[in-house]
From TrEMBL:
It comes from the Archaea. This is 4Fe-4S domain-containing protein. Keywords: 4Fe-4S, Iron, Iron-sulfur, Metal-binding. Pfam families: CdhD, FeS. GO terms for molecular function: 4 iron, 4 sulfur cluster binding; metal ion binding. InterPro entries: 4Fe-4S_dom (IPR007202), Ac-CoA_synth_d_su_TIM-brl (IPR016041). It comes from Archaeoglobus fulgidus. PROSITE patterns: 4FE4S. Residues 15-74 form the 4Fe-4S domain.
C-alpha cells in the first residue's frame, strides 16, 4: 500500500507504507487492566494510535513511555518516497561498538535513513549491517528473494566484530530466520515497522531500561 505525499513544490509523490498499522502496542503494556489510565490495556493500546500519551499508564517506565510515544510520532517524521528505480548504497558493516545491537538491513538509502532516524531519536547506539539487496527496500527484497541467508553470509567476517546474541533481522524477513540462524546463530526477528524498534529492543532486554 502507498500513501499520497505532497512535496514542498506542491507536487504529489507516493509515500511508502512503513507498516505503522502493524504495530501492536498492547504487547508492551502491563496487561493488568487496572484502568488507572481510564481504559483497559487493550483499549489503551488503541488510544495510543489516536495520539494518547503513553505516560497515562503509571506502570510504564519513563523510557518505555518515551519509546512508545516515539513509535506513534514516527508517522509524522518518517517520510519515505516510492521511487521508480532502485537506488544502491555501499554495503558492509557500519560499526559502533561490539556490545551494541546489530540491525541487518537493505542497501536502499531510504530504508537505512528511516531506521537510523528512529534509533538516533531514541538515543540508542547500534551497528548496522547493510547487505546487497540490489538497491531494493526490505519488503521488496524479501519478496524478490534478495534478502536471504546466502547474501548475509557474504558479510560473515565483518560480523565477527559484533555480539552475535544481539543481531536483529527485520520482521518482514521472519521466514528466513532459520536459514540465517544456521549461519549466524540464533538471530532475533525484529518488528515489521522500524518505528517500533526502540520499544522492541527495550522490552526484549537488548538495551538497558535506564
Amino acid at each position: 500500500m502507498s500513501i499520497m505525499l505532497k512535496t514542498r513544490s506542491g507536487g504529489i509523490c507516493l509515500k511508502a507504507d512503513l507498516y505503522f498499522d502493524r504495530i501492536d502496542f498492547y504487547k508492551y503494556l502491563p496487561k493488568i487492566d487496572c484502568r488507572d489510565c481510564g481504559f483497559t490495556c487493550r483499549e489503551f493500546s488503541e488510544k495510543l494510535k489516536m495520539g494518547y500519551r503513553a505516560e497515562r499508564c503509571p506502570y510504564l517506565t519513563k523510557r518505555e513511555a518515551e519509546f512508545i510515544n516515539l513509535a506513534v510520532e514516527a508517522k509524522e517524521f518518517l517520510n519515505v518516497p516510492i521511487l521508480q528505480t532502485t537506488v544502491k548504497t555501499k554495503t558492509g558493516l557500519v560499526f559502533s561498538r561490539r556490545g551494541a545491537v546489530t540491525l541487518i538491513t537493505a542497501n536502499y538509502p531510504y530504508t537505512q535513513a528511516a531506521v537510523s532516524e528512529v534509533m538516533i531519536r531514541a538515543g540508542i547506539e547500534f551497528n548496522m549491517l547493510i547487505i546487497d539487496t540490489e538497491g531494493y527496500s526490505v519488503d521488496m527484497a524479501v519478496f524478490l528473494g534478495y534478502f536471504s541467508a546466502e547474501r548475509i553470509a557474504e558479510y560473515i567476517e565483518e560480523l565477527e566484530k559484533v555480539d552475535k546474541r544481539k543481531i536483529v533481522i527485520p520482521g518482514l524477513a521472519e521466514r528466513f530466520k532459520d536459514e540465517i540462524s544456521e549461519i549466524l546463530g540464533d538471530v532475533i526477528v525484529g518488528p515489521v515497522c522500524c518505528a517500533e524498534l526502540p520499544i522492541f529492543l527495550l522490552k526484549n532486554g537488548l538495551i538497558n531500561n535506564i
